[in-house]
Amino acid sequence: KLEVCCGVLKDGDATDAEKELAAKILFCDDSVALAKGIATILPDPSLLEQYEPKLAEIAKTASLDTLDLEGRQITGDLPESVMVLMASARYFNLKGNNFGNITKGTALHNMVDRLTNWRKTEELVWTDLARGSSLPRQMCYLINLVKLDVSNQGLTGMFQEFLNK
């Protein structure tokens, strides 16, 4: 059923009513359906633009169990709504993608590309951040972080703000 719904979203010949019903099934509080919906719209900028508002709305109340998009070569942006859902996920894997809004070498890139569970992360050692990097606001999703080692990284701006919270 979920595969059919994903196909409907991608089908240029599907009616608006069919697409609306498929989106309602995919972007709901069912973690499996939600993961399928995300996997369907992220690689396609036009689908992402169309369905991201629905995803953002459900991200306020839903949680995600797993999201495995390793090596999909996704180049569009990774929406904040997906990051909100990643914060609740038991497991995610987004390695091997090149999200347009996440710069390689930054702390956010490390969080998205190297970690597989934000809510259980207790310790981070970042020794390879790009000079001039700052800590992203998404650090708030690391709710169990107790040790952060950014020795000699020359972080700017938000780092002091993050420490003061």
Structure, described:
With 165 residues, this protein is mostly helical. 42% of the residues lie in helices and 7% in strands. It contains 7 helices and 4 strands, in the order ααααβαβαββα. It has helices spanning 2-10, 16-26, 31-41, 45-59, 80-88, 107-114, 158-164, and strands at residues 66-68, 91-93, 123-125, 147-149. It has a two-stranded parallel sheet with strand order 1-2. The chain has a two-stranded parallel ribbon with strand order 3-4. Helix 5 (80-88) links the parallel strand 1 and strand 2 (91-93). Helix 3 packs antiparallel against helix 4. The protein starts with a helix and ends with a helix. The model has no long low-confidence stretch (mean pLDDT 90).
Q: What overall geometry do the principal axes of the alpha carbons give?
A: elongated
Strand and helix order: HHHHEHEHEEH
Low-confidence regions: none
Number of alpha- plus pi-helical segments: 7
Strand order, biggest sheet? 1-2
Mean pLDDT equals: 90
- Percent helix: 40-55%
Please give the largest β-sheet.
Answer: 2 strands, parallel
Tell me the fraction of residues in β-strands, as a range. Answer: 5-15%
State the end-to-end distance.
45 Å
For the secondary structure, the number of strands is: 4
Query: By helix and strand content, what is the structural category?
Result: mainly alpha
